[in-house]
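[step 3/7] fold_predict: job queued, chain A
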Amino acid sequence: MLVFLPGKGEIDRCRVECERIPPHNVEILPFHAGLSVDAVDKIFRQSAKRRVFLATNVAETSLTLPGVSTVIDSGLVRQMIHRGGRSALGLMPASQASLDQRAGRAGRTAPGFCVRLFSSGFRPEAVDRPEIERLELDDLVLQAAACGLDGPLLAEAPWVTPPA
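[step 4/7] structure written:
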């Protein structure tokens, strides 16, 4: 089973609650960007136990976790956003593209299904807005200026996605 949660804090709290349930030959494995190499290696080792992966959106597209036939999706993600004059990590609804990727993690190697923990009336954005549209660019502009890319050079720089 693969459970999508928005962040490490939610993963840790869920793991603690899952471990309170009497053991039924189940292994609870967190999966997020902050894991050590050894912890990631453990995820891909064979196990006789059933597994529950508690993951952030890092598990959406990057790889296939072994034996996953069920996805449980909270529908939430932590993203950098601009709020109150600064950039901060905020709790946001996942985009439809992310929800589709998450559902696609179930049954990659055998039949599977996805359970979504939100209302069927929820209508997510089609795709995530790019960071260049969500964040303040002060740091980027200051770093570019420190590297000598300021004034007209910055204004004429070839942007993949130009800022507003």
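[step 5/7] annotate
The chain has a mean pLDDT of 88.
The beta strands are 2-4, 26-31, 50-55, 70-73, 76-83, 86-93, 113-116.
exit 0
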